[in-house]
Amino acid sequence: SVVSSRPLSVAPNQVLCDCGKCKCDEGWYGEACQYPTTCNLTRKKSNEMCKNSQDIICSGAGTCQCGRCQCANSEENGLVYGKFCECDDRECIDDETGEICTGHGKCYCGNCYCEAGWHGDKCEFQCDITPWEIKKRCTSPDGKICSNRGTCVCGECTCHDVDPTGDWGDIHGDTCECDERNCKAVYDRYSDDFCSGHGQCNCGRCDCKEGWTGKKCEHPHSCPISVEESAKKCQGNSNLPCSGRGKHIYGRIFICCFKDRVSENMFLLVLLITNLAVVTGHGICSCGRCICQDGWFGKLCQHSRKCNMTEEESRSLCESADGILCSGKGSCHCGKCICSPQEWYISGDFCECDDRDCDKHDGLICTGNGVCSCGNCECWEGWNGNACEIWLGREYP
């Protein structure tokens, strides 16, 4: 017969072990002498102590004895166990051989954990390749097993389903090396399109249509919008060019991502062939979007990848008033919160703002004539109203 190898919890000083079986002292009984013969608990109190998380007494696989579950093991093989009899190792027994995990693995709480070279729910299948070959087949180009995004079974990767809804793509490839989420358009925060709607996603990389470029096909080869419109897009969450991180030159051009309080002669300015692109200390402003240099990231290239503070110091600066790190809606980098790009509507120093609270007009947040700042529209010059829907100028733009 099948007997579990799981060690039993033995009550101290109450048991004598004789040839693998317990001889209990007076007043105790059970396979490990763990149950008292007399109980000072009421039946109600006892049953409450025996309920599992679903409020089922001993998981329906045992009886409650003075607040402790006595699991039903008719053959005294110990296959049903656990504080609430929640584990049933009988599920690991192979129907054909009658052995636990077919003798090629170990069972824990009803699940088989197979030895190398074996697989299956009950370790019933043997791989026809060597362990070395198994590892070789599952190793991704970056040297990781299934790219750390899947499990290797007999030389084949089973990729993790990172997002069952499919909203942001999935993981696939022979070694789970392809991540379609990398194709999500992150520059246009009001779009969920992959490759910005201007290309095809191929193994986590965008193949752009003619006339478009960029990692997410977010940049046109030539800018279709006016200089003024592009400047507005670089404005950020204030009425200053590039949210106060830019400088206005030549009457019409804005320098994006300009480092705060640094003299102009420290930057190399080069006008490109597009009608707005300007190279600065941290990136290029191209058609209303910042393209960051290596070592910088963020919508305005405002975040340096280097950090000169400890993790503890950084986290202390990212805690919101309620003590939660970045309001639970972002990550902390060098003392500043970086809000989740998947949740485009989250903003604020501590990711505490929801831009969906901003008024809309014609289906556009702030009517497209301003930016949403912590639930309120900040209108561009010449516009007014809760949704920036009112033009105050003499001529309509």
UniProtKB/TrEMBL annotation:
Keywords: Disulfide bond, EGF-like domain, Glycoprotein, Repeat, Secreted, Signal. It comes from the Eukaryota. GO terms for biological process: cell adhesion mediated by integrin; cell migration; cell-cell adhesion; cell-matrix adhesion; integrin-mediated signaling pathway. InterPro entries: EGF_extracell, EGF_integrin_2, Integrin_bsu, Integrin_I-EGF_CS. This is Integrin beta-like protein 1. Residues 46-86 form the Integrin beta epidermal growth factor-like domain. Its main location: secreted. It is found in: Secreted. PROSITE patterns: I_EGF_1, I_EGF_2. GO terms for molecular function: integrin binding. Residues 92-123, 281-301, 358-388 form the Epidermal growth factor-like domain. GO terms for cellular component: cell surface; extracellular region; focal adhesion; integrin complex.
